[in-house]
Automatic annotation (TrEMBL):
Pathway: Amino-acid biosynthesis; L-arginine biosynthesis [regulation]. The keyword Endoplasmic reticulum does not apply. Residues 80-145 form the Arginine repressor C-terminal domain. It comes from the Bacteria. Transmembrane segments: none annotated. This is Arginine repressor. It comes from Alkalibacterium iburiense. Residues 1-68 form the Arginine repressor DNA-binding domain. Belongs to the ArgR family. It is found in: Cytoplasm. Keywords: Amino-acid biosynthesis, Arginine biosynthesis, Cytoplasm, DNA-binding, Repressor, Transcription, Transcription regulation. Regulates arginine biosynthesis genes. Its main location: cytoplasm.
């Protein structure tokens, strides 16, 4: 199972099930025939920014962070206003430079927004490479990003 698919499944699980510890994720996924380690789940929890909230029967359970419910466009705009450095295109590629430490969040927001122009993203510490469907899509996407700034 690819990371993106696993992240989507983990988001669903925390909304549908009471998951109190990382081992619960591992057990549920293994019951579904998906082999995963506790270390992988630990990284996924960090990347998804899952939080622990009080559970009904006492103790705590994993949940999505409250900000996941906010408008993605507003979050994108805020992040771009705070961390944008530059943007450039080459054919179907859009390269966005940010202040250090911001590119991963930007790439995640772009993928979460599910823009039609975007095929996928690769994020580093201060750079997001957005792979668009074609050259026209990359130009439209660049204009979209600039409109946030």
């Amino acid at each position: 199972m690819k990371k993106k698919e696993r992240h989507q499944l983990l988001r669903q699980l925390v909304q549908q099930e009471t998951i109190r510890k990382q081992e619960d994720f591992v057990a549920i996924l293994q019951d579904r025939g998906i082999e995963v380690t506790q270390a992988t789940i630990s990284r996924d929890i960090k990347e998804l920014q899952l939080i622990k909230v009080p559970a009904k029967g006492g103790g705590y359970q994993y949940n999505l962070p409250p900000e996941m419910n906010y408008n993605i466009s507003k979050k994108l705009g805020r992040l771009l206003k705070d961390a944008f450095v530059s943007i450039d295109t080459q054919k179907e590629f859009v390269l966005i430079k940010t202040l250090p430490g911001n590119a991963f969040a930007l790439g995640t927001l772009i993928e979460t927004a599910k823009y039609q122009e975007v095929f996928g993203c690769i994020s580093g510490d201060d750079t997001v490479l957005v792979i668009c469907r074609d050259e026209d899509s990359s130009n439209r996407f660049q204009r979209r990003i600039i409109s946030f700034i």
